[in-house]
Amino acid sequence: MDPFRLLLITDTHYFASKLGCRGEAYDEFMKLEQKCYAETEAINRAAFKWLNDTDLADTVLIAGDLSFNGEKESHLEFIELLKDLKAHGKRVYVITAGHDFNDHPFAFDETGRLEPEGTKREELYGLYHEFGFDSALAVDEENLSYVAELAPGLRLLALNNDGDGKCGHTYSARQIEWILKQTKQAREDGAVMIAMNHYPLLPGVPLFKLLGGEVVMKNADYITTLLADEGVHLCFTGHMHNMSINLKTTEKGNKFYDVCTGSLIGHPAGIRLVSFTDHYNTVGVETLPIPDFEWDFKGVTQEAYMRRQFDSMINTMLTYMRDDPKRFLGKIGMKNAAPAAVEAVGKLGQKLNAATVGQVCRLLMAKCDDSIKDIRFVDFARGLVRHAFEGNMPYVKGTPEHDAVMGALGKFASRVNAGGAKLSDLIEGTIGKYGLDDLNETLTLV
Ligand SMILES: [Fe+2]
Ligand SMILES: [Fe+2]
Question: Is 319 in the same domain as 424?
Fold first, then answer.
């Protein structure tokens, strides 16, 4: 029985290149994208070839956002890759998510924006039933969820919480009833149950929980307590395209781990290799790089090429702050900001884009170590954001970067209550990771 291994990828965002991914409108679109787009077909094809051939595991989990944006053709080509994986003897378990259904997907060519055929949510079961549903112990077709036996005595609760696509990302009362029936059945059968859910259940970094929207599932606190106390102590998630491993312990003393994996097709990309031993109670998580894919990387490494896309998204935001503050505010959900606010943000943008870390620290009356004072502020800020997505954020207590950030913001932020926590604690936990390693860690479920 031991050890049992599986491989997990997520947010494959496959895009059928023949639909069109080029031209001026494409280039404009990519300025604010973290994901690769034209490259996703090549990345997926390389990754699936590797999955076909590897003998590390014969079980593959995919945690949703399978297509780029719900294009029918992307789904059809992606399903060919899944079928090929099965033909190579792999067992494949997928869930779908918000990017898998869309009435108005898009593509680009020299003429501008195109409108390829989309996919309705009602079509997803028919498209993906072979990859988890058909061999399941239980299926909730309405919610595109199922329970599968991964190995003798190990069950996967594969959950989808898109509902009708309008009700927000949470479980309905009926779905919770179904979940409770499954967890009870697993306990009665003496099986260990783990889960897979596209949307994170614990925030990847503490500040994520302030962003609202889809960053963490709605009523995640209730759901994580419910699952942990029902005996589900581990959930694989995706969606945020970040790498994190976090733990919550419920009042009853039960653990809940959220292992969130980055997108296959955007920095930080990776594949998780998960090994279960000790009757599935000890879970080793390793993060592997994605395989090499065929592309013109313009003279840099594949990883640097993908990282550059991530960085360019942040750079664009920072320059919008200076050059087009109204657009910047729109991008962070404040499109109705008052003219005075737009002007103030523009002025701040001018200052920050020209300043060094030392100058910003001086402005905020914080000490700044000589080793970082000459770094351009925008480069420093971009690094902070990127580290938050890469995991294992490096600026822990004792580093000059930690002292500069906490010196500049800590005093003010310690007086701000942010969803029941001190804002300063959330900032400190976002620039430096304490506790679990986000990439390679051994988890003890009970
Ligand atoms: Fe995604
Ligand atoms: Fe998503």
Answer: yes
pLDDT tens digits, one per residue of 170-200: 888 899 999 999 999 999 999 999 999 999 9
Helices (H) and strands (E) in the chain, counts: 14, 17
- Domain extent for 359: 302-431
What CATH number is given to the structural domain containing 218?
3.60.21.10
Residue-wise pLDDT tens digits, 42-99: 999 999 999 999 999 999 999 999 999 999 999 999 999 999 999 999 999 999 999 9
Contact 65, 10 (CB under 8 A): yes
**Residue ranges of E strands in 322-388:** none
Are residue 277 and residue 311 in the same domain, yes or no? no
Instruction: Kindly identify the ligand whose nearest atom is closest to the C-alpha of 200.
Output: 2
Identify which of 273, 284, 289, 290 has the alpha carbon closest to the alpha carbon of residue 56: 273
Q: Total domain count for the chain? A: 2
**Residue 438 belongs to some domain of the structure:** no
The ligand that comes nearest to the alpha carbon of residue 263 is: 1
What separation in Å is there between the alpha carbon of 136 and the centre of ligand 2? 24
- The answer on 330 and 239 residing in a single domain is no
* Strand, coil or helix: 332: coil
Q: What is the SS3 assignment for 396? A: coil
Is 54 in a helix, a strand, or coil? coil
Q: Ligand 1 centroid vs 231 CA: distance in angstroms?
A: 28
User: Is the model more confident about 419 or about 442?
Assistant: 442
Task: Assess if residue 445 is contained within a domain.
Answer: no
